[in-house]
Design brief:
The complex is a heterodimer of chains A (about 300) and B (about 350). Chain A has helices at about 20-60, 70-80, 80-115, 115-125, 135-145, 150-155, 170-195, 200-205, 210-240, 245-250, 255-265, 270-300. Chain A is mainly alpha-helical. Chain A is flat and about 100 Å long. The relative contact order of chain A is 0.11. Chain B is of the alpha+beta class and about 350 residues long. In chain B, strands 6-7-8-3-9-10 form a six-stranded mixed β-sheet, sandwiched between helices. In chain B, strands 13-12-11-14-20 form a five-stranded antiparallel β-sheet, with no helix packed on it. Chain B has a five-stranded antiparallel β-sheet with strand order 15-19-16-17-18, with no helix packed on it. In chain B, helix 2 (about 100-110) packs across helix 3 (about 115-130), helix 2 runs parallel beside helix 4 and helix 3 (about 115-130) crosses helix 4. The radius of gyration of chain B is 25 Å and the shape is elongated. The chains are: A mainly alpha (about 300), B alpha+beta (about 350). The interface of A and B includes residues 205, 212 and 303 of A.
């Protein structure tokens, strides 16, 4: 940064320290300059995140008649259906996360062990579903899983089952559909963290007497945990707020938090109730995230937490 | 008792190792015997196959053919975790999610050593590499030299039959590297484990090794004690790779060796007739005052440049055939007083016992 207009002098020490004032002014100018560069970004964050969330919070404080009240929050404790929805939401998010780990970990492991070219081709197949809308994919699952869908027809034709399996319009359907949509969110961070594991560390493990299985258990798996943790957090948090798949695949039997919000706003035009649901979901999600952070921070050995 | 490896140190017999990647031959019919307790260095430029050979010894790379016997037992198809060979990796390969203690205890844990025993042996190993009291440190809190020592402690704590080291000092700065060379050598003398060490640094190899195998292009060019390798290189590659060398073309005919019209005095018998190269180290050349001195060979030359380096000086001289040679000597006051000036004709001398010939290829 240029030294500006403040008078510079070798001999004339104004306050006993050579050019201290000019240097301080220069530092201030530089800080202001950086703030000016940041301001478009800060404005976007303010206008698109801070303001809407504040508005949401504000809306939640009014009842249907426009009176200021806490009735929207009182409802959570008074109506059993709210508590049930809340429990269902967590159950779905939890099971979907578990299913994603079950399918995603082996997949990410395979990708990380493939040669570079093969891995990048396989990665395209992991990312490919992203390019199709969630709605289309959900309907596709409906076609496959419903009572007279592909799977049930095949299984009956093959004589394996007599009655169609209840795969859609229930909890299982929601979990299958959501797992498919969420899988890349778990695989991608996990794959990235697996790629950073030093191959020499695995060689060292075997060299020091650990069988391949023991090397995986004691070295590879612990080193892949940071990636697994971030994947799990992403999937779980996305799962909590998911709407399309449970609405279509649940058959009205699986009511999740986001569907409750939709009902409150579009069916009953009760914006206060919808906003309160949003605020509670946001608060619970943030609480969960900080809990994750605390747990992982405590058990990570510094190398992870400081990255 | 302190970790004592000497009784269990075993010899390694490497025979007929072949390794190809596709059509590319990395190692061809390589054979090598390492004595029990010996410190042997594989020295060579990158791509010479030295690291591949080490990986085959450790079991991480499968050879296409050959045999490796440790104390008479064939291990060529044995999986790495059963070989009982300690290894120090170039980047140390410490486990980042474990502290120093657990890193060093890892091989003992795999061998189901009791907790009390483990504690005792890890402490001894850390003492040995002078890291006592650092067991609780995280790996990322250690300096490069300390990580190196942890890797070393981990590789010897389970008293392996053999220790392999893959350029373990290459990531350290010069001062620390030279210090660790001496420390590694002393450790080897104390513990006496059979050690195979890989490096491309010829000075490091000379400092540390009992014997050095110079590798080039997947073959062993020469295997010898460091002194012999330096004083009596057998090929042009070895002479050029280890230390500095002047190569002067000579010809062998009728049982004697000739440089231009001068018959060379030499202690070795003359080689087969034909063209050869005389290998002359810069410090074996000296400035001759009396050209008729007997028992030495003299080469007339012209001084190109003289470079003063404090403790020594380097003189670049041009022989009559236009070939440049380098002479180095210490700055003793008698030598310093008679330093030639650029352009001055001089006579270079070389003792008959220092004449070494290699094939001209």
């Amino acid at each position: 940064m240029s030294v500006g207009s403040a008078s510079l002098d070798h001999a004339g020490r104004s306050d006993g320290v050579l050019n201290a004032d000019a240097l301080r002014a220069d530092a201030r100018r530089q800080a202001l300059g950086l703030l000016a560069l940041l301001s478009p970004g800060l404005f976007v964050v303010f206008a698109l995140i801070i303001v809407p969330i504040g508005w949401l919070f504000w809306l939640s404080l009014f009842d249907e008649t426009g009176e200021l009240s806490l009735v929207n929050y009182a409802r959570f404790f008074e109506q059993a259906s709210y508590i049930k929805t809340f429990a269902t939401t967590f159950k779905v998010a939890f099971v979907v996360t578990g299913a994603c780990v079950l399918f995603g970990y082996p997949l990410a492991y395979m990708l990380s062990q493939l040669p570079r070219r093969a891995a990048s081709i396989c990665l395209i197949f992991v990312i490919l579903p992203f390019w199709t809308s969630v709605l289309v994919r959900t309907y596709a699952w409906l076609v496959i899983l419903q009572r007279k869908g592909l799977i049930n027809n095949w299984l009956i034709d093959l004589g394996i089952i007599g009655q169609p399996l209840p795969l859609a319009n229930n909890f299982a359907g929601v979990v299958i559909g959501m797992t498919h949509i969420m899988l890349p969110f778990l695989v991608l961070p996990l794959y990235a963290s697996m790629k950073t594991i030093d191959v020499d560390c695995l060689c060292a493990g075997m060299n020091l007497g650990a069988s391949p299985a023991a090397t995986f258990r004691q070295i590879f798996f612990p080193l892949s945990l940071p990636g697994l943790a971030s994947g799990v957090v992403i999937v779980f948090v996305l799962g909590l707020g998911f709407f399309v798949t449970p609405a279509l695949m649940g058959g009205g039997k699986v009511i999740m938090w986001a569907m409750r919000m939709e009902q409150a706003t579009s069916l009953y035009s009760n914006w206060g109730a919808g906003a309160a649901l949003g605020v509670v979901l946001l608060a619970v999600t943030l609480a969960l995230l900080s809990l994750f952070q605390r747990l992982l921070g405590a058990r990570a050995t510094g190398v992870w937490s400081r990255r | 008792m302190l970790l004592s490896l000497a009784p269990s140190a075993l010899p390694i017999g490497i025979h007929g190792i072949e390794k190809r990647f596709g059509s590319l031959s990395i190692l061809s019919d390589l054979s090598l015997d390492v004595a029990a307790g010996e410190f042997l260095t594989l020295l060579g430029p990158s791509g010479s196959g030295k690291t591949t050979l080490l990986m085959i010894l450790a079991g991480f790379v499968r050879a296409n053919a050959g045999s490796i016997k440790v104390g008479g037992e064939e291990i060529i198809t044995m999986p790495p975790h059963k070989r009982n060979i300690g290894m120090v990796f170039q980047n140390y390969a410490l486990f980042p999610h474990m502290n120093v203690f657990h890193n060093v205890a890892f091989p003992l844990k795999q061998r189901r050593v009791s907790a009390a025993d483990t504690r005792e042996r890890v402490e001894k190993a850390l003492d040995l590499v002078r890291l006592q009291g650092l067991g609780e440190r995280r790996v990322d809190q250690l300096s490069g030299g300390q990580r190196q020592r942890v890797a070393l402690a981990r590789a010897i704590v389970f008293e392996p039959r053999i220790v392999l080291m893959d350029e373990p000092l290459s990531a350290l700065d010069k001062g620390l590297r030279e210090h660790m060379q001496i420390e590694l050598r002393n450790l080897h003398r104390r513990l006496g484990m059979t050690t195979v060490y890989v490096t491309h640094d010829q000075r490091e190899a000379i400092t540390m090794s009992d014997r050095i195998a110079v590798m080039n292009d997947g073959r062993i060019e020469q295997i010898d004690r460091p002194e012999a390798l330096y004083a009596r290189p057998k090929t042009k590659f070895v002479a050029g790779f280890i230390g500095e060398s002047n190569f002067i073309p000579v010809e062998s005919r009728n049982g004697s060796v000739w440089y231009e019209d001068r018959k060379l005095r030499m202690n070795d018998p003359a080689p087969s007739a034909g063209r050869h190269l005389m290998v002359v180290r810069p410090e074996k050349l000296w400035l001759v005052a009396d050209a008729e001195q007997s028992g030495i060979n003299t080469l007339p030359a012209t001084v190109g440049d003289v470079i003063y380096q404090g403790d020594s000086f380097i003189c670049y001289a041009t022989l009559r055939d236009g070939r440049q040679v380098t002479l180095r000597d210490y700055c003793r006051s008698d030598v310093l007083a008679k330093l030639p000036a650029p352009g001055e004709p001089i006579t270079l001398g070389i003792d008959a016992q220092d004449v070494v010939l290699v094939a001209d290829q």
